[in-house]
Design a protein that fits this description.
The complex is a heterodimer of chains A (about 190) and B (about 150). Chain A has about 190 residues and is an alpha+beta fold. Chain A has a single domain, classed as GAF domain (Beta-Lactamase), CATH 3.30.450.40. Chain A is built from six helices and six strands; from the N terminus they run ααββαββαββαα. In chain A, helix 1 runs antiparallel to helix 2. Chain A starts with 8 loop residues before the first helix and ends with a helix. Chain B has about 150 residues and is an alpha/beta fold. Chain B has a single domain, classed as HUPs (Rossmann fold). Chain B has a five-stranded parallel sheet with strand order 3-2-1-4-5, sandwiched between helices. In chain B, helix 1 links the parallel strand 1 and strand 2. In chain B, helix 3 packs parallel to helix 5. Classes of the chains: A alpha+beta (about 190), B alpha/beta (about 150). At the A-B interface, helix 1, helix 2, strand 1, strand 2 and helix 5 of A face helix 2 and helix 4 of B.
Chain lengths: ~190, ~150
């Protein structure tokens, strides 16, 4: 297996557009997982959001992995390729010889040969993880890793944008049920 | 006999099993209840045809993506079989596997309204952070639908 670059500028444009042209985070994240799987010729892709309270990674979108594997158990941020949350891209070329996985047996059973885990950052804080799964041992090129890190930053922006939008909508709904005599108080 | 229509959005997670158990225990003795299993999948993204070389490279792997979508439909079919093996008759259980154009909540609301469903069974894991990013399906469904019973399995 060589280290040929797969995410050239044309492919990068196609994948980036999936982010910029979507108005719905759920659909955008699922399209991104599908496109990355096809573009890289890999088994699958998952986008996680980090839950700071439980310190678990929650699936935001996923493609190519079985329901059994997705339901294998809680994915603990620290145990599952924990360095990712420090802002590092982590490449596990061969899952059978790595001690960084939380569920190594399940990964082998699923037919995962290698994983690449990238942080999704916003304002220098990790808010999620982009994870790619290959059928075989995988030597991903450094340039592809760099491209994926940029994509992950864009995902972070999209995630925070929609989170802000959802918060504003919730505030708007709460304001709409306030007694009318209280509404002017919030204008001051 | 008037039929009571039950809509069960199936999102292919471990929580479906709990909701499935609830449906079996609650509705299988009731022969006037009809269950519809529903999953709205994200269709494969459309890639600009002018990106010739990219299309060629993606095409090789798009079959794999299509195959993965078919696997999802098989899971839905097997969930239907599970209901049939647990007390429901053939004409009591349907399934609907369709591409979605909107967010999950809007797809559920549209189907509940157009299909004139009486009961909606949802499952929900408390405290999920992803809800902050994608919005709460339950909140949207509960605020947009009226005259429907919503059963929540947690």
């Amino acid at each position: 297996m060589g280290t040929q670059e797969k995410l050239d500028i044309d492919m990068f444009k196609v994948v980036s557009r999936a982010i910029s042209e979507s108005t719905n985070l759920d659909i955008m994240a699922n399209h991104l997982a599908q496109l990355l799987t096809a573009a890289l010729g890999i088994k699958g892709c998952t986008i996680f959001a980090l839950n700071l309270e439980t310190e678990e990674l929650e699936v935001l979108a996923s493609f190519g992995l079985s329901v059994e594997y997705m339901n294998k158990g809680p994915v603990t941020a620290e145990k599952s390729i924990g360095c990712t949350l420090k802002g590092e891209a982590v490449v596990v070329n061969d899952v059978t010889s790595s001690d960084r996985l939380q569920y190594p047996e399940e990964a082998v059973k699923e037919g995962v040969g290698a994983m690449v885990s990238l942080p999704i950052m916003f304002l220098k804080e990790a808010i999620g993880v982009l994870r790619l799964y290959h059928h075989d041992v995988w030597d991903i090129s450094d340039r592809d890793v760099d491209s994926l890190l940029i994509l992950a930053e864009n995902i972070g922006l999209a995630m925070m944008y929609t989170r802000l939008l959802n918060t504003l909508q919730a505030i708007n709904e709460a304001m709409s049920v306030l007694p009318t005599e209280l509404v002017p108080l919030f204008g001051k | 006999m008037a039929i009571t229509k039950v809509l069960f959005p199936f999102n292919l997670t471990g929580y479906d099993r709990k909701a499935m158990d609830f449906i079996i225990h609650t509705f299988s003795p009731l022969k006037d209840h009809e269950i519809t299993l529903f999953h709205a999948y994200t269709p494969l993204p459309k890639v600009d045809g002018s990106q010739g070389t990219v299309m060629e490279r993606l095409d090789a792997n798009l079959n794999y993506l299509s195959q993965k979508l078919k696997e999802k439909e098989l899971i839905l079919k097997s969930a239907r079989l599970n209901l049939l093996e647990n007390g429901f008759s053939e004409n009591q259980v349907r399934y609907l596997f369709k591409p979605r154009a909107k967010d999950t909540a809007s797809e559920i609301i549209d189907l509940a309204l157009t299909g004139h469903f009486h009961i909606l069974v949802l499952n929900r894991k408390p405290g999920k952070i992803t809800r902050l990013f994608t919005g709460s399906v339950l909140n949207k469904v509960a605020s947009d639908l009226s005259n429907i019973t919503i059963c929540l399995v947690t």
